[in-house]
Amino acid sequence: MSALEPFGTRLRHAMDERGPLCVGIDPHASLLSAWGLNDDVAGLERFTGTVVEALAGTVAVFKPQSAFFERFGSRGIAVLEKAVGDLRAAGALVVMDAKRGDIGSTMAAYAETFLHKDSPLFSDALTVSPYLGYGSLKPAVDLARENGTGLFVLALTSNPEGAEVQHAVREDGRTIGATILGHLAAENAGARPLGSFGAVVGATLGDLSSYDLAVNGPLLAPGIGAQGATPADLPGVFGDAVRNVVPSVSRGVLRHGPDVVGLRVAASRFADEIREAVGSV
Ligand SMILES: O=c1ccn([C@@H]2O[C@H](COP(=O)(O)O)[C@@H](O)[C@H]2O)c(=O)[nH]1
């Protein structure tokens, strides 16, 4: 494979061409059942293949949730591998939502799993947890730089429980979330048109004006749809940083399957609402 352009550059182009919507692939057992599928590998395969068939050619970014594939063991991982390959072959970017984080030496192995160009699970970016210390992510940052891939670091997550950690105030007066954002701004310094090191910032969080979201990198924003946030909330949550937001919707789109037209209509409705909301800033 020839060297890839940096993830941030590829993401900016994909957002310009296809819009910023990210569709999450979360094959919950309840969704498999609602689609009339069994909660087994054949059901997983059919579900995932239908999402790819319906949306891979039009949506910019996909975020497979690794947990829903891992729960089927090696055969589930095989379904995930195929989906990643098919999505990328259709011109979409893949953010693997595996939320890895460990001491540096183990982090290097996680990075090789998802961000090394020769890995079967090679993805354009990976979600990672900085809660063993931001510095523990260095092997992933380094490998991402070498391979033209990216990271999305959990900074201010969409779930209410996140606040007890992420809003905690350090001795220097900064919150943990703000500290993570600061590290990302440093990683992305000077990158054009967009850095490759993004933050996960929930769309559910309300006014974040006390946080400096100008990290010169993408802001992956889960929480739209099933968790209650809407595209119209985006400008109020993200302010000027909204142009770098990648709004992510999983169940809000997936519940419209298994009909491929239903999935397309749902994704296109979210894309339109996002365009309207973000265009208004
Ligand atoms: O802060 C976070 C980080 C990640 N997620 C993940 O996004 C999807 C949300 O799914 P919905 O069905 O759209 O609610 C899911 O995979 C989460 O693990 C998040 O929700 N919040």
From TrEMBL:
Domain Orotidine 5'-phosphate decarboxylase: 20-266
PROSITE patterns referenced in this protein's UniProt entry, alphabetically: OMPDECASE (PS00156)
InterPro entries on file: Aldolase_TIM (IPR013785), OMPdecase_AS (IPR018089), OMPdecase_type-2 (IPR011995), OMPdeCOase_dom (IPR001754), RibuloseP-bd_barrel (IPR011060)
Keywords assigned: Decarboxylase, Lyase, Pyrimidine biosynthesis
Active site per UniProt: 99
Pathway where it operates: Pyrimidine metabolism; UMP biosynthesis via de novo pathway; UMP from orotate: step 2/2
KW Isomerase (keyword) present: no
GO MF annotations, alphabetized: orotidine-5'-phosphate decarboxylase activity
Domain of life of the source: Bacteria
Catalysed reactions listed for this entry: orotidine 5'-phosphate + H(+) = UMP + CO2
Enzyme Commission number(s): 4.1.1.23
Family: Belongs to the OMP decarboxylase family. Type 2 subfamily.
NCBIfam families xref list: pyrF_sub2
Name of the protein described by the UniProt record: Orotidine 5'-phosphate decarboxylase
Organism: Streptomyces longisporoflavus
Gene giving rise to this polypeptide: pyrF
